[in-house]
Amino acid sequence: MAFALCIRRSATKFASTNGRVRSISAVVNRPSLARNSSPLLRPFASRGFLYSTAIDRLSSEQTLLRVIDTEINSALQIDDRDLDEEMTPGSFPFRIEDNPGRQTVTLTRDYNGEHIKVVVSMPSLVTDESDDDDGDDVDGPSNESSIPLVVTVTKKSGLSLEFSCMAFPDEIAIDALSVKHPGDSLEDQMANEGPDFEDLDENLKKTFYKFLEIRGVKASTTNFLHEYMMRKVKQEYVLWLKNVKKFMEE
Q1: Buried b (16+ CB within 10 A) or exposed e, 103-129
Q2: What is the distance between the alpha carbons of residues 212 and 209, in angstroms, rounded to a whole number?
Q3: CA distance to 29, 85, 115, 169, 226, per residue, from 220 (Å)
Q4: Domain segments of the chain as ranges
Q5: What is the pLDDT of residue 90?
Q6: pLDDT in tens, 120-174
Q7: How far is CA 68 from each of CA 73, 222, 249, rounded to the nearest angstrom?
């Protein structure tokens, strides 16, 4: 009797255990879990992806830094003539104010009670594609650099003449001439711009060119400025590259 009772208890316990095993097996083999198997491995896969992305980004930045270094070295290898030796004492009467990072250079001088200021902008390349009478381009387009200049001649009273010019090699062209009164508003200055310079009498135009030449704004000055500004273009480019490199290294 006791033996039969033990047999029944063992059978019941086995059936219960076997049922739990089948239940666990069914849960483990459920298709939805098979598709999302090994959830504990997913963080490791994500870490591997992030590591690969970080390596690619680092490689890209290192490549960019190498290219920047090559460009800097290439620019610095360009031979610059000593412009200070080209201008003998007294032949260039202006004081030069050149601040790195700015796209202009300011020249100043005093002459017979007048204060003269010349703002020199970066040079630009001018292409002349003019054709001959037959419509055939014999020599092809001619390229030359030009430099925008704004020349301001100011009297002690504050009254000034402002010349907008374009400087070419061995030549200066006046584009506009205006009178500036001290304390004038922007509207007043625009009203005092005067006539188109090209519409002036030829003798009057020649007189204004002579006016600038006497005050130091002449071909020899602008030829020096062409060399100076071309060197500044390179210096500003190198400075820009170094700033980009500094950003990439941080």
Answers
A1: eebbbeeeeeeeebbbebebbeeeeee
A2: 5
A3: 92, 14, 20, 9, 10
A4: 84-128+141-229
A5: 58
A6: 999 886 555 554 444 444 444 445 789 999 999 999 999 999 999 999 988 999 9
A7: 9, 33, 12
- Contact by Cβ (8 Å): 149, 162: no
As a 3-state breakdown, the chain gives helix, strand, coil percent values, each rounded to 5, of: 50, 20, 25
**Class of 84-128+141-229 per CATH?**
alpha beta
pLDDT tens profile 202-236: 999 999 999 999 999 998 888 888 888 988 888 88
What letter would DSSP give residue 218? S
Query: Which pTM value belongs to this model?
Result: 0.65
Task: Provide the pLDDT confidence category of residue 64 given band limits of 50, 70 and 90.
Answer: confident
Residue appearing with tokens 């500044």 = 232
